[in-house]
UniProtKB/TrEMBL annotation:
This is T9SS type A sorting domain-containing protein. Residues 45-119 form the Secretion system C-terminal sorting domain. Pfam families: Por_Secre_tail. It comes from the Bacteria. It comes from Marivirga salinarum.
Length: 121
């Protein structure tokens, strides 16, 4: 018997857990999207605080999909920024068109999301 359990953590992360042989002493548990979650959680944003640019480093070599990058204000408004992929896993995000303040970079791969906070000074 296989049971699907959906888990939602802080509304930013979600993943599925499949439990085989539910009700036995030794259920088998596996998750999907583990590599995506690991890559997103280990992503780095620097320098912080930043002035004109921030760099995003993410271990994307094992990801099956492209990383979607969005910059949002602290209240959730999407900001218009451009970014360039400089190298495998390294992105440069232009902050010159956004005002000083606190922001988030939202990273999305497939259905997985992660937020990284930074300050523009």
């Amino acid at each position: 018997m296989k049971t699907l359990i959906n888990i939602l953590i802080l509304t930013f992360f979600s993943f599925n857990i499949f439990i085989s042989e539910a009700g036995t002493e030794n259920p088998i548990v596996k998750t999907d999207n583990v590599e995506i979650i690991k890559a997103l959680n280990n992503a780095e944003v620097y320098p912080n605080p930043a002035e004109e640019y921030i760099y995003l480093r993410i271990d994307d070599k094992d990801l099956s999909s492209d990383v979607k990058i969005e910059v949002m204000s602290i209240i959730g408004n999407k900001m218009k920024v451009t970014h360039d992929k400089l190298d495998t896993g390294l992105y440069k995000i232009d902050l010159s068109n956004i005002p000083v303040g606190h922001y988030y970079v939202m990273l999305t791969v497939d259905s997985e999301k992660s937020l990284k906070k930074f300050i523009k000074k």
